[in-house]
């Protein structure tokens, strides 16, 4: 992919303080994108934004808890206020509760997974699409999971929420295909981001055994696929849930 593929594109990224979101911001800034970054980790968000700004990128940082619709809406409004439009929306913020059997999963865990992983994506798409309709098009990427297209033993609440993300992605893609708005989801296998290393409570070697490659996907590998999905040159892909899984779905 050419380094200037995203030059001048206005991109919104939730969950940008770490993991995929931080790496996406760095790659897109290097490609000339104008960024609106959000995260509830304000210190981490400010650190990312400061580093990118010092490197010459145009960045607006907006503290954002994606479970609060008004805060997600404010990110879209910031993009329009400062850059005049929103070309790409990346709904990346996510979380997981520790692994446990379905019968041991508590209601609060189910509610929390849906609040962040599903409602956060819904709020993002709702306000991103409204802006994209007004300006004549755009592209959205929802960061789902392999748990959104298959079973995920001992991650019932997470799996249910990520299936919801895939369902919303496909629905929005069909609704707005004629409006020049593409909506896709990426479904990564486990990758050593904070969500995995701190969130689910099991060893990385154990997780790697499930992959035909017998290793986890590195964040850089996942982000490379994401950049291809949102590329302005990728004009005919919509409504897809793309597995980036080292072959897991080929079993």
UniProtKB/TrEMBL annotation:
Superkingdom classification of source: Bacteria
Keywords noted in UniProt: Oxidoreductase
PANTHER family for this protein: 3-OXOACYL-(ACYL-CARRIER-PROTEIN) REDUCTASE (AFU_ORTHOLOGUE AFUA_6G11210), SHORT-CHAIN DEHYDROGENASE_REDUCTASE FAMILY PROTEIN
Family membership: Belongs to the short-chain dehydrogenases/reductases (SDR) family.
Protein's UniProt name: 3-oxoacyl-ACP reductase
Native organism: Limnobacter litoralis
